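Continuing from the previous page...

OK, I double-checked the sequence for GH3 middle domain-containing protein against my notes and this is the correct one:
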Amino acid sequence: MLEKKATRSTRVDGVSGEAVIEEFERVTRDAANVQRETLRRILAENGGVEYLRGLGLAGATDPATFRARVPLATHADLEPYIDRIADGDASPVLTAKPATSISLRSVSPPAAACCSLTSIENVADHGGDHLTAGACSSGTTQGKRKYLLFNEELVKSTMQIYRISYAFRNREFPVENGKALQFIYSSRETRTKGGLTATTATTNVYRSEEFKATMRDIQSQCCSPDEVIFGPDFAQSLYCHLLAGLLAAGDVQIVSATFAHSVVLAFQTFERAWEDLCADIRRGEVSPSRVTSPAVRRAMAALLAAPNPGLADEVARKCAALSNWYGVIPALWPNARYVYGIMTGSMEHYVKKLRHYAGGLPLVAAEYGASEGWVGANVEPGTPPERATFTVLPDIAYFEFIPLKPVAGDGGYAEAEPVGLTEVAAGELYEVVMTTFADQ
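Thanks. Re-ran it with the corrected sequence; updated structure tokens here:
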């Protein structure tokens, strides 16, 4: 039955959430030194690759030499090297560690990589100064597909930011031994000429064993089986996510998706499909008209197990009591603490509808990043998405910021020389430049 349970603070991977936060505070308070060490590690590991050898670094790992010798590069500059790797060149072209797969991403317009540095905070609750950025872009772009390298270092940095963000969320909205109703989906995979798997960055992450382990550690284990996440048809997977979520309704403490629009789409679908979902629960079998994939049907059959008319009646009763579907999430998932996903940039458009479905549940904006890598974490999860800021993680990549000054009359921006992470000015607009362990 759909009963509300008490919750308390949990641990992150056997370590207290407060310890994770303390380590975060340590590196952000010492951002200048941490940035120098991060660049040193990147260059020490990758200094012998073909791309950097041709730039005359000669073993130098300091920021001044790096900025003087290594020019700013766009994807177009790196594309010939990435294409060689995709075609099977196994030599250290861009990275010392081999690419394990290729991430596909649409090319974004130039302004999409900008962020406005809205404040440098000194918050008593956080114990120190933090560089925070208000994001202008959620990383959602459209256009021509491009290849990006993906390796184990990107998986590590992704898990790092997941754990940090969770520690702050769990301090504000504690969960305990719960599951997450996650509307996540894999994308179709292809093979490059050299045999590397090419798919979206999120699919590369979902396929990693580290992802599953981290989701368990941070109380965000998905209700749905892998067959649903990696199903061949989006509509069938969405339907099964909803069904799996209803079957585990009492255990769900987080409702999430990568992007806010995915949660909105899921509940727009629920409005049309709830009677079919109730019928499936009642008879203990997924509708053959809704789900045709044999693998997905088998996985869902294991979850359904037996008819459950009591749950079906309860879901139907709660749906009938709703007014225009307001508050459907807390009505059906009474132990949910918050709704989580990227809600900034172009995703802010969906916040109003998402708030309608969430009723009084908090909406928490997810991390700030892109396919190339992560930039910052939301360390104030209680702040509404419209006012969310993101604290830059100085040990996740080496960051530079190109100042953008508005040009009077033409609506464009004039660029200046890049500045370092600790050299930015509050209230100014910058384009983010990243040097990562994947050499993006």
